[in-house]
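Researcher: Next sequence.
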Amino acid sequence: MKNNQTFKSDISGISFPENEKIYGRAIHDPILGLIKKEYPDFDAEDCISINELNVYRQKYISNYLSSEIGALSAMEKNVISSLKEDKSIVSIVEEEEETRNLGQIVADKVADFGGSWTFIISFVVFITVWIGSNVFIFLNKGFDPYPFILLNLILSCVAALQAPVIMMSQNRQEEKDRNRAKKDFMINLKSELEIRLIHDKIDHLIMHQQQELIEIQKVQIEMMNDILDQIKK
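Model: Next structure:
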């Protein structure tokens, strides 16, 4: 007679054999949480059948797998977004325009021209034309006969003006190098922070997976024990 006894499930209201009765206090907490989401009044003293419990166990495992896929997708999106932000920040740093005054612009132009082959060739041609015209054309009776005092004066003035301009340009170059080093430091710091953030996400994901896998193992053990009990009965 005992085997013919039945009970009524507190969530579905359907009658089941007494040997399939499971109380709420015996249900694992994560699965009990799923049941309470659908049936808020379900408590530790209420009961359901093994078949109903297995439905929620399967739902729990399915939700876990779905959440893990979603977590991986979310992390992938975060990494891609982070990489995009890095690219954007690098572009902003590289495209940042530097404000220069008129003296700095002139110094940069003079230094660029004075350190080029164009200046050297042009200067050699100028000196050659100057000396050749005075020696061979005007026969040392022109505007600057030998020993070319006017030419020496011009060269001395050019050297006197060029030296401070070059020094100014060197200072400008040092300032550019400092700004470039500062930008490189900012980019490297941003990259380091992003790498640390990715490591933290991976560590958090691994810890979360380990905890969830333990919960799934507990649920699987409970299901196996229920199957063994059914076989024994």
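Model: The first strand starts at residue 6 and ends at 8. DSSP finds five helices and four strands in the chain.
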